[in-house]
Design goal:
alpha+beta
């Protein structure tokens, strides 16, 4: 089955650094070690996959509506 996959990066903001920032290795408020991240570092991504029917105009419409017009 063919799919269309869109990815959007997630970056650390100042609010994230209480648990994921410096100093690296000390335990955060939930008991896990901090990663030492800095504001603006890549934290991960959101991935969305939708099935695509072969011959359908659905993917082109989706890309145009979601990624071209809303920027």
């Amino acid at each position: 089955e063919k799919t269309l996959r869109a990815l959007t990066p997630i970056y650390y903001s100042q609010d994230c650094l209480a648990c994921h920032g410096n100093p690296k290795g000390i335990l955060d408020i939930s008991g896990y070690p901090r990663e030492g991240a800095q504001e603006g570092d890549l934290a991960g991504a959101i991935s969305v996959q939708i099935p695509v029917k072969v011959g359908s105009k659905q993917p082109a419409h989706f890309i145009h509506e979601r990624f071209c017009l809303n920027r």
